[in-house]
Amino acid sequence: MNPWQSGDPQLHPECLARLAGQPVVVGLSGGRDSVALLLLLHEAGVPLLACHVHHGIRGAQADDDAAFCEQLCRRLGVPLRCVYIDAPALAREQHLSLETAARLARRRAFAEAACAAGTKLVALAHHEDDRAETALFNLARGAAGPRSMAPVHQAEGLIWLRPLLNCSRAQITHMLQQRGCPWCEDATNAVPDVSRNIIRHEVIPALDKALGRRTAPIITRSAAVQQSTAEALEEALSLLPLTDPQGRLFLPGLEPRSRAFVLAVLRHYLLTCGVPDPSLATVERLADILPPTAPSSRCPLPGGYLALRRQKRLIILPPGAN
Length: 322
Hints:
- By secondary structure, the chain is of the alpha/beta class.
- Helices cover 47% and strands 13% of the residues.
- A hairpin with a 5-residue loop joins strand 8 and strand 9 (306-310).
- Helix 6 (128-141) packs across helix 8 and helix 6 (128-141) crosses helix 9 (216-238).
- The protein is globular.
């Protein structure tokens, strides 16, 4: 076990306060983290529905993961809902990376499972190391700074819980090993040419070694400050009269403003329109089409969305509408 952190995993108190006997959908991949989350919630007496998503990517290994989840849930007496998707096809159709397409499809599957279970609670197995990796990944790709994950997040009419956010990967591994509980290993997690894996296996260990301490808690604290600031900005922008009665962004109101303000408004507007993961580069490309003298009045966006400048308005068209 990591010498810098010991002790059994503890469910996040903010998440525990949300449970209070309500049924919860647990995203169950069969991997170490989701198995630990299922066990801890089951032991806490929380009414559960597990949801496993087969992404149509890893062939027989993915089939084995689904079978493992079925056996685990049968042993625990937890209902299981298996959902089969074709993530590569979704990525091609929506012009997204395979990782993003799979993540969005998982969220839809979990949302549908929650609706079927008559609940608004979905629990995901992200932990402290995931939180730090996400913060560094977002910082490196220019996605609105080193923002990270929150233990409780409301979106799409659901309450998304991450009860393991205060737990390290080492704690989770130690707990399962002590109990003799198996889990599935996804071989792609060790592939060295995947950016997140490089951050996990090379970047963070190098930071730990350089500073002589676990840096994941430090990174997550810094990301939490950034997250709080960003949420305050989003709330402030939502109170400003930035759109017309049809919900289109009114561009003359942005003309006297600084570029920093314009970029913040554009990112906020894209999020409210449902555009997934607008990076800083995306928002800057969008800002470039706003002037009437710009060579183009169109800007493709992630997820198959399209931005149009028309009659001093910015219009966001959903996939398939352009």
